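Entry 0007
Protein: tRNA modification GTPase MnmE
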Amino acid sequence: MVLTTTEFDTIAAISTPPGEGGISIVRISGEEALDVAKNVYRGKNLDKVASNTINYGHIVDPSTNQEVDEVMLSIMRAPHTYTKEDIIEINCHGGIVATNRILQLVLSNGARMAEPGEFTKRAFLNGRIDLSQSEAVMDLIEAKTDRSMKAAISQLDGNLSHLIKHLRKDILDVLAQVEVNIDYPEYDDVETMTSKLLREKATDVHKRIVQLLQTAKQGKILRDGLATSIIGRPNVGKSSLLNHLLHEDKAIVTDVPGTTRDVLEEYANVSGVPLKLIDTAGIRDTNDKVEKIGVDRSRKAINSADLVLLVLNASEPLTEEDRQLIDATNKKKRIVVLNKTDLPIKLNLSEIKRLTKAQNIISTSAIKADGLKGLEELISTMFFNEGIASSQNDVVVTNARHIGLLNQAKSALEDVLKGLDEGMPVDLVQIDMTRCWDFLGEITGDSYQDELIDQLFSQFCLGK
Ligand SMILES: Nc1nc2c(c(=O)[nH]1)N(C=O)[C@@H](CNc1ccc(C(=O)N[C@@H](CCC(=O)O)C(=O)O)cc1)CN2
Ligand SMILES: Nc1nc2c(ncn2[C@@H]2O[C@H](COP(=O)(O)OP(=O)(O)OP(=O)(O)O)[C@@H](O)[C@H]2O)c(=O)[nH]1
Ligand SMILES: [Mg+2]
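Output (structure tokens):
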């Protein structure tokens, strides 16, 4: 890491969300945090107050001596702080103008504006947490359900880091042993011995990585949500279903076919599974220019979905359009929802069973709120059958970057095993083993490039 002059100067930002609220926090971190605070704070002598205390006082503009706000000021001295630097937090009255005024004062008295994620970046660069833990901070903020949050907390606690560090240590140990064997051969068959050692370790580490990767599918759903598209002809009750799953009237429902004109995306929590629900325009042939675009988008929503809820109207016979939709979704993970079962049933159930191979069919009445619990349970068991797949220590891999690196590490190990099978010289096999070690190191940030770090932290929110 190249230290630029701005790398560790004193930074400040508003760490609470913008808008009106009871209290807002302006956070300052760096060597001069206390000096900056002393310039704008009237109250106790900050040199004399103990660390980790909160202190009453006022923020004053030193250029005019004008009082700006009545505040509580927290002081946390390095190194036992979030960033491992001195931190001052000004707890001021909430509100956009007051909070920004204080931030501006702090900025004109020795601090510079923090970049997005810069506090957490410092926690990483100063060695309090590793890269995967920093990423967990972000996942925690964005968590959509309690289960997603649990996965993020576990990662923040360092459970994934722990597993990765173990794997890396085992690889390093074997690499060291191989070195010793080559440099100080005690036996004649040192080549055979060394190959055996490498093979055993590569096989073992490979198995542990595969186990971790098995949690990735669910992990990705926990982090990003399960893309669930509600598809069907106009007026079958798609938007009514969406509103029920959201427990909120988000989508407009009317008896006019073609009510939903565009796709609508909302997050729902279904038994802890975060669903990214997509309500679509009813699919039909239409000459209406606007509706046509909506219908095209609906068709695309089928392709991009992890799960399709195909809604049919049970009170009408199956139409040609229904059959086409069944056909178009046959290869997807799908639940067929027979809605409007409160009305006399006109749908031919045996035909539907034949067309869908009788898989995942459920009856509902959105208007009477019937069958919806069953639908939620079915979704949950389809994707989290035995609960969350737990690898070692309940670690779930949720992050696409981590998944990519684990796959690369896995394939490096496969190269090791292949090399050994083909009788490749041990020093060449070692290279692939070292590559595996490097890939794993990128997960925790033990080996990294500046661009990666900048890119990762820039996705954070301001003040974090
Ligand atoms: N006011 C406030 N609330 C907050 C934060 C904050 O920065 N400020 N946090 C920010 O995200 C979260 C708490 N996370 C934190 C994590 C570590 C440390 C910290 O000081 N760690 C030290 C010493 C801990 C101790 O006293 O034992 C360390 O690890 O050395 C502080 C906050 C959530 N709530
Ligand atoms: N009887 C009965 N009516 C329902 C049921 N579900 C929805 N409806 C009614 O059917 C009509 C259409 O419902 P929507 O939810 O707007 O249907 P949609 O599939 O979103 O329709 P488009 O957006 O036009 O494609 C409304 O009048 C709803 O009240 C049900 O289970 N039973
Ligand atoms: Mg609709």
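Curator remark: The chain is about 45% helix and 15% strand. The first helix runs from residue 33 to 40.
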